[in-house]
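Supplementary Text 2. Reproducibility record for the structural model of the 330-residue chain.

All settings were left at their defaults, and a single model was retained for analysis rather than an ensemble. We include the record here because the model underlies the residue-level annotations in Supplementary Table 4.
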Amino acid sequence: MAKVYYENNADLSVLDGKKVGIIGFGSQGHAHALNLHESGVDVAVGLYPGSRSWDLVKESGLDVGTVDEVAISCDIIMVLVPDQIAFQVYKDHIEPHLEPGKTLMFAHGFNIHFDAINPPPDIDVSMIAPKGPGHLVRRVFQEGGGVPALVAIHQDATESALAVALAYGKGLGATKAGILETTFREETETDLFGEQAVLCGGIAEMAKTAFEVLVEAGYQPESAYFETFHEIKLIVDLMYEGGLAAMLSSVSDTAEYGAYTRGSRIVTPETKAEMKKILGEVQRGEFAREWLLENQVGQPHFKALRRITAEHPIEVVGSEVRSMMAWLNK
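Retained model, structure tokens:
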């Protein structure tokens, strides 16, 4: 069984006298900085000069400085910038200021696991990875709860890396839900695979394809949108709250029988074989190299795919349908 840490396993006072630097103020960055600040932790936010977030950080009551300034002044440095630029930010603005005994933290193991970032051996390197987007990490904390997280230790130079990481997680609110112990390898590979095979790639591609099948058969695009896209959230919410059993017990018997008898015709042994190929590409670092190379040449393929997806009929119809749903526009 995996080891899980809760409130009584973490001591926030471990961070007393330490300053935490949050590099970036995007989705995760703003949640980490604000949650820690409201938990009584001394926080500073590091941004590039001229960042649009500079004034926003100040308005939030947080210290702000350049990445270099924050890396110099802070004992714990959490890197929360996109994977494809993190290694350059680290090399230019963080690595020169890593004195022995400092802690370098990540919320995703990508750059450490694939050797884009190689920290010196005399610092702690750890990870606290909330299992939810930043706005959810922030909202649940404000409601008095916490989003579950993962913890991993890559280097333990001070022999206190785990205690510091758990204290950080407690400051986020994560120990209220549970922090699961893992490794940088496991977090990175399962995260990339899950995104590609199911969460972002698989679901989206299945919805687009099902929408196309209905429209090509002569059904109204709006009806096709509701049946293949809109109701995904309703089903996923039921699964999130109570697993497959809760979802299947909530739908009609007709839907449940259809799920049992037709689902495996969509996700076939060939689909599973392709999933295994995708996992292999992740494990061998092929995807990481492809993504980093794509960024080195200016993201031409990525931007083309983004444009094609934005122009797909399901997006055009969906935008029109959602505009009629007043509750979504709040």
